[in-house]
């Protein structure tokens, strides 16, 4: 089942006439820009589905876009923000993973001159979930996201891969399904900039999803940490401080172990939640804005994953 169908089960469909979206890009370095969504969490009527970030790299041979948002209208607004920065053509679109808020905007970029890039597993998951997610997002946003054209990646990266886009070297790394099936992260070795997708964020607990793999997420975060990035650009929220990598590694390791120990002692989920709130709260409550509101969901997801292991 799509992650967003799971999230949208309590919403009721209604029509609305949303105001036109207008985004602006923030400069990260000479040729790297971010379009940062002001809202975090699920798509709603209030945010018109705009809950995730996009980034782009300007090369001497065109623009590389990383993630296209939750809908075709959002994709159009992203495209306009890029055109406010540069008149170079958009030539490549990378989808960091298969969650709909990062790729349903692909339709805005559809052109014979644009290459859509992701992994085989992510693309297969998009094809499975996409038609359902379009309907779910329309329901969640009371019609604001509309009927997005489904455009899937056709260029597949299924192993560590290095490629030159114009004058910019980009490295692609598999995230081993840490957050979702087939997720990847990008690395600019010369500028030491990492594009992490939803593998981490600045102020929020690591995002638990039904199809994610916690031990592999920990391993992937350690790999990114070894790269020693100067800038970390995430799928949600503001630019991520480098210390967030060690923070998330430590938190996930402690929480995963705590859940495992609790299950081995036949402890109830409610008891595990209370114990981890007590033991981890003093250290991490100030680190994660949603610690108390999201710890139960995180524990429930970890319990489910350990039962399946």
TrEMBL record:
<feature type="domain" description="Metallo-beta-lactamase">
    <location>
        <begin position="51"/>
        <end position="236"/>
    </location>
</feature>
<dbReference type="GO" id="GO:0017001">
    <property type="term" value="P:antibiotic catabolic process"/>
</dbReference>
<comment type="similarity">
    <text>Belongs to the metallo-beta-lactamase superfamily. Class-B beta-lactamase family.</text>
</comment>
<dbReference type="InterPro" id="IPR036866">
    <property type="entry name" value="RibonucZ/Hydroxyglut_hydro"/>
</dbReference>
<dbReference type="InterPro" id="IPR050855">
    <property type="entry name" value="NDM-1-like"/>
</dbReference>
<dbReference type="Pfam" id="PF00753">
    <property type="entry name" value="Lactamase_B"/>
</dbReference>
<dbReference type="InterPro" id="IPR001279">
    <property type="entry name" value="Metallo-B-lactamas"/>
</dbReference>
<protein>
    <submittedName>
        <fullName>MBL fold metallo-hydrolase</fullName>
    </submittedName>
</protein>
<keyword id="KW-0614">Plasmid</keyword>
């Amino acid at each position: 089942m799509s992650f967003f169908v799971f999230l949208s089960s309590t919403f009721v469909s209604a029509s609305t006439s949303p105001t036109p979206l207008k985004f602006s890009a923030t400069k990260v370095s000479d040729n790297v820009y971010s379009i940062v969504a002001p809202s975090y969490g699920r798509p709603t009527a209030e945010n018109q589905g705009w809950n995730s970030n996009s980034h782009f790299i300007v090369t001497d041979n065109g623009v590389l876009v990383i993630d296209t948002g939750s809908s075709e209208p959002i994709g159009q607004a992203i495209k306009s923000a890029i055109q406010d920065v540069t008149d170079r053509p958009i030539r490549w679109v990378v989808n960091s993973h298969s969650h709909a808020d990062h790729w349903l905007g692909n339709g805005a970029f559809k052109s014979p001159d644009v290459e859509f890039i992701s992994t085989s597993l992510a693309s297969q998951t998009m094809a499975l979930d996409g038609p359902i997610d379009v309907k779910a997002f329309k329901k969640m946003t009371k019609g604001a996201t509309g009927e997005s054209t489904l455009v899937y990646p056709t260029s597949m990266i299924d192993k560590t891969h290095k490629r030159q886009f114009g004058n910019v070297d980009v490295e692609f790394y598999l995230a081993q399904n840490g957050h979702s099936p087939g997720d990847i992260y990008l690395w600019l070795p010369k500028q030491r900039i990492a594009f992490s997708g939803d593998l981490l964020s600045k102020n929020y607990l690591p995002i638990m999803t039904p199809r994610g793999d916690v031990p592999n997420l920990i391993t992937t975060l350690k790999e990114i940490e070894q790269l020693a990035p100067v800038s970390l650009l995430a799928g949600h929220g503001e630019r991520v401080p480098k210390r967030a990598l060690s923070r998330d590694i430590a938190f996930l390791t402690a929480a995963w172990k705590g859940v495992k120990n609790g299950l081995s002692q036949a402890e109830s989920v409610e008891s595990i939640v209370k114990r981890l709130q007590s033991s981890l709260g003093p250290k991490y409550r100030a680190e994660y804005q949603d610690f108390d509101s999201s710890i139960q969901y995180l524990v429930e997801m970890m319990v489910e994953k350990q039962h399946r292991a």
